[in-house]
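User: What would this chain look like folded?
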Amino acid sequence: MPRTRKINPDDAAIVQTATAPEEDSSSGKTRYAAPALDKGLDILELLSRSEQMLTLNQISRQLGRSVNEIFRMVVTLEQRGYLIADNDHYRLSLKLFELAHHHQPIRSLVSTALPHMRELANRAVQSTHLTVYEAGRVIVVAQVDSPERWAFGLKVGALVSLTDTASGHVLLAFRDEAERAAMLAAHVRMDGEQEIETAQLMRQIEDTRKRGHSRMESRQIRGVINLSYPVMGANNRMLAALNVPYIERIDKKVNPSLDEVQGIVQEISARLSRLMGDSSFGS
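Assistant: Here's the prediction, encoded as structure tokens.
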């Protein structure tokens, strides 16, 4: 027979203390306290917003905590692979990104998209990548190189700006006003990101929504034309942006034109939308 462990009164008191709810005086709501978890999440969120590596002193100052409070947590996060240390400076590793890839919706999206992205790359003779919105930024979750001798593309895991990229405009354009406002409020500026007035950005987003795609000169790399189309899911839910950074050959080799490539991206994005559950999207 299975044995049950008796809990002595001292153990019971500890369990009761650890699980007892606290009253949140600011909101009037009852919550359960997990101070160590709070500290760990604060560190991860701070480093996710930082463009530079931070020292323990910098982390403690920005979080308003003492070095002693966060030292063990930083060491534990480094040992578990969430942080990378370099001469007493810390930054995020890609472990959170790897965990996100184990998340079923992302895994399903990527596994569905990759065969069609390979078709796109071969037909268009261009590289292609798939992006999603996450925490104020745009992240590349899948990528396929051009079959050419050379290729221009973004690496899986790369973070790009929400406001000055074609994929960012598409990810903003096909959401309701409340979602769009929340995304822009959470916007994290990227290194080198150009300034843009809010009114101009909103006009560009509305233009993208009306056209059903974005086609714009890259604001990061000269000579690149970015093409981006939405991938929609069930209930017309925005899932991702399918992108091609188009580069033109100028020798005697004739590849598909920009307009021809745009037609291929439109076709593949509509196909992916149907496969992801949006039977009303595309044709």
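Residues 104-124 form the longest helix (21 residues). If you want, I can go into more detail on any region.
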